[in-house]
Here is the input.
Amino acid sequence: MKKLLLIFVLSLLFALTACGNEEAISADNFEYDPVTMVTLTRDQFEKYYMLSDIEREYYLNDGSKMDSAAASGFEMIQTTDHVGQFQNYDTSDGKVFIKDGNDDDILCTITAIYENRPVQFTVYYKENREFPVKMAELYKQLEETAAYYGYDDVATLITEMYQSTGYDTSTTTSFMTDVIKNEYKMLPYTPVDCEVTAVYSKSELLSNAGKNTAIGMLTVFCVLIFISIIIALLRFVPLMFDKNAREERRKQKEKEAAAAISAKETAKVEKSDDKKIEELPQKSPGSATAAIPAEKRAMLEALPESSRVAGDDELIAVITAAITAYNAENAVTRKAYTTASNDKLIVRSIRKVR
Here is the structure.
């Protein structure tokens, strides 16, 4: 199965190669003479490859599509590709070829040798339907001339009578084409567009691709870093343009600092209160009257025994009053008082018992 698949793939590749070669060496959109087409292409090359500044300006702004493409193309290979000076044409195999175009036209490509690198010049030709009419008219005139002077055919007439005129007399077709082109300023194939391309080797293409990739990646990373810096600095923009925002930010910082200081001071006070409560003397129930002021204690002692024993409620009230007075004298907070109290008694009122 693998062998059959391999044979099929190889056959397909050979078929594609054959199709590509056939397309490169043949053209069927209209009838043409290869020699004439290559000659016309060289004429177009010599017309545009060395232009003055005035000619280039005219062709770029007011010329036809062919003029504009040729002028810009030859300017590009000098300013961007730096091909150098033109030297000669390359007539080796594969350097000159003719093929069909996509719009009923024919493409003729020639290769020119420049100082630094070769250049391919491709011209798009459309069929000039008026040219065959002129060819038929000229051939009829040549037949009449040959009959008038007693020549057997037109070829003999051209060879003997027009040899010294400077026209190409190698064949009848080339002679008539040369005459119509020079006398009637008419071409058998009308050039409508062209391309001028500098030819780079594979190593140069890979090197340029690597450089472009590196430059592109470096540019992307630099832009991303720049964007990140801008995003990080955006939070300072309101502070730069809004005085109120700056003032509010300053007040907020002051409030935060004051809150931190207040928290520290509160912690110190609570710690001090706890220490004071721990330092309070532990009094026994029997010595509760020691905390009563001297005057009140003297009055209590002066009372009869029956009056002084008034029951547990009165004793609790007296003890509570003494503790309250002691705490007031020592500036102990309510928190400290409630913390020191273990019996959880709350004094609502104090009445004197009669």
